[in-house]
UniProtKB/TrEMBL annotation, chains A, B:
Belongs to the class-I pyridoxal-phosphate-dependent aminotransferase family. Alanine aminotransferase subfamily. This is Aminotransferase class I/classII large domain-containing protein. GO terms for cellular component: peroxisome. Homodimer. It comes from Ceratopteris richardii (Triangle waterfern). One of its GO terms (molecular function) is alanine-glyoxylate transaminase activity. Pathway: Amino-acid degradation; L-alanine degradation via transaminase pathway; pyruvate from L-alanine: step 1/1; Photosynthesis; C4 acid pathway. InterPro entries: ALAT1/2-like (IPR045088), Aminotransferase_I/II_large (IPR004839), PyrdxlP-dep_Trfase (IPR015424), PyrdxlP-dep_Trfase_major (IPR015421), PyrdxlP-dep_Trfase_small (IPR015422). Residues 1-20 are annotated as: Disordered. Its cofactor is pyridoxal 5'-phosphate. PANTHER family: ALANINE AMINOTRANSFERASE (PTHR11751), ALANINE TRANSAMINASE (PTHR11751:SF29). Residues 7-20 have a biased composition (Polar residues). Residues 134-495 form the Aminotransferase class I/classII large domain.
């Protein structure tokens, strides 16, 4: 028996006890890594957007494949995740033309492509490919991303905000998530370090904080004020955390809100910036829904623009802004493209971020290219401009109509109230579950809103995420539903949702 | 002053002391996150492949751009990283044709493409796109990757090994690195948990172990035996670690070796498998160079094949095999595609891996598609087969010639000895640095092999990585150089390297 076996006698190691088992001829093999001896931080981490309800939906999908008549519905409708193209949204033609040409630059030399691709897509692809060292779209790029693409993105930020942006502050990432993980890893030393997050929140933040062994310091959005973000709430929650000995390092703000859909006013944003400045917190601005604003009286302003307009610069304010190609009107989730703009950090800290990025070499090039297109779309006069604008406007206006349609329907339901989605891609209705439903959930050993969502899924095939997956005011129950199903399907979905809800209430209010 | 300010009085928080500074009107602003208060695990993590030498090279590149005559060379030659296309290697045409069509499936309906794309590329793209739910190549996939692509990859593994592979065991990742990080995160609970790694090693492993707060348990490859891996060495290092109270959880084997280039014999692999079985360790098999074998008397066998041939199954042996689209003859580094095949873990542990994958949603689709092409290339009879084979063979045979050419040249240098590269993409020559060079390095405050590499870079523009970045037997000095520069450039590079080395020796042996 080997060294671990020897140690097993001392019995001071799970893996070596397993080892003992595995070596005994009678006992069944126990794998060295099992649920009782893995990293507890992994166990602690939760991500409901692809959690138990979604797993159950996948089982139902299999069942439906084997026997289409086995369930009370003929298709699953995945409203659990902001994944527009999975529900039939078509990609933006110009973006895909450029992507294809960059993926196969050999095409650029063939004149046949003139008939297949728009002239500005060809021109754009040629300029991108020639800006990549050696025209090598298959090579690792600089760990931050291709310099020329970061430059285009910085110009896009500058055009958006009216304030300068530096390509050296841009880190291109595989979607926004890896950037969030990198910043959280950088800032969290131990459980005494905290990051303030909105409740309800997008579970990427709670998951990442759990994985990196820090403390999530919650602040609550005010549902009664359209999920408003009050600085007084920030102050009192910070004070409470500090009293508990937590070093609060950063504030996460998701604007437009996920799962809550609110769009912050500039005045509100100014107060948030001032709060971070006064408390010397890093502001982590999740701005991936910046192009998803539907409320007529609201518009998106980046926190960078707000901070700069208040006179705060990279020399006196720490701000990280996250963006992505997954949302907006393009919804290129599967390409995994994104960036973070890191301002107000010393160069030696930026070098540490660069080092972390380097350990994974670089983000994928097609995501990098797509991010540059999002920040520099066709302009008036370009051959693709008309098609691009019509595709863009059709998607955004339809999303606005769907958001309104669905919110109205939800508000008609008994014991359900729902704030409108001013932006983003979700509604987060509140349900007052009847006592009977609470008891039934308890009997089923389920969280009440999970119980409701599972019943909804079993009855209709509609997949939504329980509010408990985003955290919520204790004792309140919600679910998150995307506004992404095709507009023509909305009436059917609403009808299914409504009749399920009525029968659910009937069953449990009796 | 806010809550943090209040706490600052207690002075028990760096960030709040910073806060105090930032609030005082006279003192300069100190950012909340600075080099003295970031996560120490990040500081500890090192990744020399893109470390100080490469940073210096980038500065020189800028200098060269501003004034081409400012340096003793007219171009940087990046031999620091396995990035074939950055040095002019052309992509495999079939792979790029399919990639382009999957990126823009709209093309599949246009008949003009018949003249631009090969018929089997069109057929393959159509079959891939139609196997993706909703033909949505822009949608998030299942967190493990598109099921149909995992099925193709599993079939490829089965064809390679002659043993069955299960698509449910395949996790598609953005290159091999994220899979390695996921497994290391899963297994490491604290500093008392250890993972055995070869020395020299690819620094991804030491970086990931540092970031996840575990202990790297080194075992040494025997340079005098062609970087041989002796099981007796594994045993004694394991015993020593266990005696130190380390719970050793896994063994990392890189085959073919990086940076060392050895290809393990089947007999050697059997002993390694038996060692892991006896000690109940997870075997982490880094097999990303499986198609890079140049020695006539060597061939690659996967550890899965070896373990199965010994009668070990998923019910009694824990094995993770990592593969990537970045290496081989395709070298599609920038697309970030890879997979890990996870066998011999309980389903509840696999569910935890799935959850970790879900937190980042999915790997990028074009990387997923490319990985499926690598595992299922054109077959004899397909229109593209001839071109594919000629491209493949030209690249692999040239790599073999370059490996031999460069090793011979290095062995001619005074006080330099170099094992041949049986596989992979690197040579790892040993230099016996003269006393004078050691003193000069010390005076410059540099590690001796870093001093040598910096001198080489300043004199020739050739970028290599100091052996200390991979760890090495204390007191020995090496550097890693890729075999990737174009074959026609090799003589020039060898000449530059040789004349630099001679003058370096002259300077410091005097």
């Amino acid at each position: 028996m080997g060294a671990n076996g020897v140690q097993e006698v001392n019995g001071n190691s799970t893996s070596n006890i397993d080892n003992g088992k595995s070596l005994s001829s009678t006992a069944p093999w126990c794998p060295p890594i099992n649920i009782d001896n893995i990293n507890p931080k992994v166990l602690e981490c939760q991500y409901a957007v692809r959690g138990e309800i979604v797993a159950h939906a996948e089982r139902l999908q299999q069942k439906l494949l084997q026997d289409p008549s086995s369930l009370p519905f003929d298709e699953l409708i995945y409203c659990n995740i902001g994944n527009p193209q999975s529900l039939g949204q078509q990609p933006i033609t110009f973006f895909r033309e450029v992507a294809a040409l960059c993926d196969h630059p050999g095409l650029l030399h063939k004149k046949e492509i003139q008939t297949v691709f728009s002239s500005d897509a060809i021109k754009r692809a040629e300029s991108i490919v020639s800006s990549i060292p050696g025209r090598a779209t298959g090579a690792y790029s600089h760990s931050k991303g291709v310099k020329a693409l970061r430059t285009i993105i910085a110009e896009g930020i500058q055009n958006r905000d009216g304030y300068s942006a530096d390509p050296e502050d841009i880190f291109l990432t595989d979607g926004a998530s890896p950037g969030v993980h990198m910043m959280i890893r950088l800032m969290l030393r131990n459980k005494k370090d905290g990051i303030m997050c909105p409740i309800p929140q997008y579970p990427l933040y709670s998951a990442s904080i759990a994985l990196h062994d820090g403390t999530l310091v919650p602040y609550y959005l005010d549902e009664s004020k359209g999920w408003g973000l009050e600085v007084s709430e920030l102050k009192s929650r910070l004070e409470a955390a500090v009293a508990d000995g937590i070093n609060v390092r950063a504030l996460v703000v998701i604007n437009p809100g996920n799962p809550t859909g609110q769009v912050l006013s500039e005045e509100n944003q100014q107060k948030i910036v001032q709060f971070c400045k006064d408390e010397n917190l890093v502001l982590l601005a999740d701005e991936v829904y910046q192009e998803n604003v539907y409320a007529d009286n609201k518009k998106f302003s980046s926190f960078k623009k707000i901070a700069r307009s208040m006179g705060y610069t990279e020399r006196d304010f720490s701000l990280v802004s996250f963006h992505s190609i997954s949302k907006g009107f393009y919804g290129e989730c599967g390409r995994r493209g994104g960036y973070m703009e890191v301002t107000g950090f010393d160069s030696d800290v930026k070098n540490q971020i660069y080092k972390m990025a380097s350990v994974s070499l670089c983000s994928n090039l097609s995501g990098q290219v797509m991010m540059s297109l999002v920040m520099n779309p066709p302009k008036d006069g370009d051959e693709s401009y008309e098609l691009y604008s019509s595709e863009r406007n059709a998607i955004l206006s339809s999303l606005g109509r769907r958001a309104k349609m669905l919110a109205e329907a939800l508000n008609k339901l008994e014991r359900v109230s729902c704030n409108e989605a001013e932006g983003a891609m979700y509604l987060f209705p509140r349900i007052e579950l009847p006592e009977g439903a609470m008891k039934a959930a308890q009997a089923a050993g389920m969280v009440p809103d999970t119980f409701y969502c599972k019943r909804l899924l079993d009855a209709t095939g509609i997949v939504v995420v329980p509010g408990s997956g985003f955290r919520q005011v204790p004792g309140t129950w919600h679910f998150r539903i995307t506004i992404l199903p095709p507009e023509e399907k909305m009436p059917t979905i609403i009808a299914k949702l409504t009749s399920f809800h009525e029968s659910f209430m009937q069953e449990f209010q009796g």
